[in-house]
Fold this protein.
Amino acid sequence: MSFSSDVKGELCRQPMQKKCCQAAELYGILLYCNTFSKDEVRLVTESRPFAQRAEKLFQRAFSWGFDRADGLEADSGKVTLRILDPAKLEAIFDRFGYERGGVLAHHVNLSLLEQDCCRAAFMRGAFLAGGSVTDPRKHYHLELCTSHYNVSNEVVSLLYEMGFAPGRSRRGGSYVCYFKQSETVEDLLTTLGARLSAMEMMNAKVEKDMRNAVNRKVNCDTANVEKTVNAAQVQLDAIRRLEAAGGLEALGDKLCQAARLRLEYPEASLAELAALATPPLTKSGLSHRLRKLCEIAGEVDSR
Ligand SMILES: [Zn+2]
């Protein structure tokens, strides 16, 4: 099951309460389903809970349902629901304020969406019929897709009024508005009524952020270890050359002690090495001595 179908499943478990919201949700479905024309209403979905909810919404609003339901008996795959009866189509057009046989360019009839509750229900219907959301473990993307140009424009305005700022694009003959920010997608899912999915998304984000932070830390630690090892290698080379050139004692107590310490603990970091000295040295004190050793080795080489 995809995240999208889980979200739709959760939305379909929302109780149908007020009449006004039931009509608004059905209206969202009509404007975002596959076909809503004077000849046909056609809704294609893989979500069985949604197919059942759509049928129930028609039953409640009109006391009748779809004329045909293909694929509903199968456990998976697409379900195609159709209304073809001219009398039913007439009733739908009347109910939502359209003239049947009039202009086919649908607009959003805002008089049906004056209440906040109805707007949320309308968006839920639109999402169920024409929306999808990507698994938040991959990336963040929620979109609504309709074939009606004006509807897309007006829904974008409506979303702005509800506090959401979608991006927009065209795909084939469809108009898409989308969201790519995790917080916005979470808020929208919550508004539509999918609280659990919004929570799941929040958790996925926390996990992802944590994984990234751990990776950054590991990379950083690895880089530091490499730096320490490289520096120690340079020091060891220098000390061995000095040993070969005449012994370490000739360098004096302080430098000799630092050189022996490095030889004894070739992989220790500067801080570790400083603590191992007797008496302990400061990091900068030891660093100074090791640098000096490298300098002298350089002078010996160039002689
Ligand atoms: Zn309402």
Q: What stands out?
A: DSSP finds eleven helices and eight strands in the chain. The pocket of zinc ion is lined by residues 18, 20-21, 24, 115, 117-118, 121 (CB under 6 Å).
